[in-house]
Amino acid sequence: MVPTGSPVIGMTRVPCTNVSLTFIQPERLIELLGLKHGYKGRAIKITIYHPTFIISVSSTMSYPEAGIYLIQSSSKPDIYASVHHGGQNVLRGESFDTDKYYQRWRLDYVAGNQDRPQVFCALTKVNGEGGLGVNSIYTNQAVYSLNNPQSWFLSQTDEGYLIGQISDDVTYTWTHHNKGDPITIVADGSQSWQFVPEN
To answer: How far, in Å, are 37, 135, 137, 158, 175 from residue 140 at the CA level?
Structure first.
């Protein structure tokens, strides 16, 4: 089972009324807690202690279910993790265009180091032709589509997930600068990504 660690970061108590809070949209409940951008998708718990409700919002989003996703930059939503069709194997940040780029990735969870808080996964091509990895783990190493997919950790952030690998107790995570540039790994990076189901 994928862990959904959810320490509480917001809590409020409101009077019970004739209108059940369970019918209020999650975004409205987040507004009631005084939280703003970056908390969409959080788990929300409503507990009834008559005559009040207690509403709490977790500090983390749940991890995405195993499945097929587009991997989208949280800070640049027009950028997706892409491999050019036609033999190029480097992962780049490109606009959404599945005719021009390979952009659909299968997320599967794999065993990881039990002593670490991160969740580990493999990111593979849907057609089974390999998956994502690096030639070696060090700063500014490009991510490639390789025959033998490697494991990546996911670490939750306010805006999505860090995607990375660990070497000698240093975390190296995906980063991207401009459209068309390779996606690389950098030590202790902070760029977040989102897993978006393709409609």
So the answer is: 30, 11, 9, 24, 9
Percent of the chain with pLDDT over 70: 65
Classify each residue of 9-39 as buried b or exposed e, where b means 16 or more C-beta atoms within 10 Å of its C-beta.
Answer: ebeeeeeeeeeebeeeeeeebbeebebeeeb
pLDDT band for 44, please (50, 70, 90 cuts). very low
* pLDDT tens-place string over residues 127-141: 777 899 999 898 899
Domain assignments of the chain as residue spans, ordered by start: 8-61, 67-196
CA distances from 61 to 24, 41, 44 (A): 19, 6, 10
Helices (H) and strands (E) in the chain, counts: 1, 16
Helix or strand run (H / E) with residue 28:
helix 26-32
> What confidence score (pLDDT) does residue 87 get?
74
Domain 67-196 classified CATH 2.40.110.10? no
